[in-house]
Amino acid sequence: MSVAVRGTPDERLVKPGLWDRLVVRPEIGALLGALLVFIFFSVVTGQFLSPLGVANWLDDASTLGIMAVVVSMLMIGGEFDLSAGVMTASTALVTAILSTQLGMSVWLALVVSLAFALGVGALNGWLVMKTGLPSFIVTLGTFLALQGLNLGITRLVTGTVQVSGMRSTGGYESTGQLFASTIDIGGTAFPVSILWWVVVAAIAAWILVRTRFGNWIFAVGGAQVSARAVGVPVVRTKILLFMGTAFGAWIVGSINLLRNASVQANQGIGLEFQYIIAAVIGGCLLTGGFGSAVGAAIGALIFGMARQGIVYAQWNSDWFMLFLGVMLLAAVLVNNTFRRRAERVRR
User: Fold this and answer.
1) CA 14 to chain centre
2) What's the half-sphere exposure (Cβ side, CA atoms, 13 Å) at 267?
3) Beta bridge pairs of residue 163
4) For residues 66 and 300, what is the distance between their CA atoms, to the nearest angstrom?
5) Inter-CA distances, 313 with 47, 59, 322, Å
6) For the chain, N or C: smaller number of CB within 10 Å?
7) 210-231 pLDDT, tens digit each
8) Residue 30 burial (CB count, 10 A)
């Protein structure tokens, strides 16, 4: 008589549970954090959930979210861009000076400023790859150079640190419809920047998850030497990522310029750290190779909800910096925990 022996099932064939499927997603920590912040301020202040309140904190998060998404892609690729904040002012200044001082159509000025942004992004990427210097150092140099150019050229052209008069330029109204209009929903005006944020986040998420270029981004960020060994075009990938960050800065600079009809030469300084923090809160690791564009968008949403929630609760705005520091530390700890858990699940 033969006895059937029940073998142990191959663990590779065992379907992972719901928790295991969720934990491999980099944005899960940010999603939980956003839910907590949303519930907290919904309870603390009634203005938070009013239509105008929702429009305000979504608007606050939108431009930050656009930059957080493109910065997250660069961070997944293993690099940083400290010039991202000042670049938003540089692109806006190029557009404004060409339009107000040289009489150029705003549409054409936007094309020139886009070319300028992409050129600076490509230069950043090329310098990082060709010199072998850390992107932190290269883009810090770019940050200082752009800051000096912004102030020096603006003073030279206008005698002040501001360029204004955009409303009288040709093409201002039509370009404003694209970058600075509002969408009426239930009697409340929602800025179109929110739509830009959603579109940029959706495209970035698609690139990261569904395309070969997305695989290259994770590869060069996680193991650059191995990626090069298997034929990944490391130099091209990283240069394109820096150009992507510059493109996001051009969008944000255009939104700010056409919304306010003016631009300050010192605008955007310091915001690069908020972009990085939002990306980290969203699940990106400082070491590269892990992260999510959707998570970075959620990280920016947490910023917007917290910043406006503090205003609605009538607290001192200084508390926002405490919140920022706590969120950053918590995000780093949570991200490392989730990454280790995800690595165990994938094995």
Assistant:
1) 37
2) 22
3) 263
4) 9
5) 9, 18, 16
6) N
7) 999 999 999 999 888 899 999 9
8) 31
Question: In the numeric block, which tokens belong to residue 180?
Answer: 């600075």
pLDDT digits (tens, 9 = 90+) for 109-160: 999 999 999 999 999 999 999 999 999 999 999 999 999 999 999 999 999 9
Instruction: Give the residue from 85, 91, 54, 92 showing the smallest Cα distance to 70.
Output: 85
Give residue for tokens 């150092």: 137
Q: What is the DSSP string of 295-338?
A: HHHHHHHHHHHHHHHHHHTT--TTHHHHHHHHHHHHHHHHHHHH
Q: What is the DSSP letter of 48?
A: G
Name residue, tokens 């700890």. 333
Which of 180, 166, 177 lies closest to 109, judged by CA?
166
Among positive and negative, which fits the CA dihedral 136, 145, 261, 250?
negative
The 3-state DSSP class for residue 82 equals: coil
pTM for the structure as a whole: 0.90
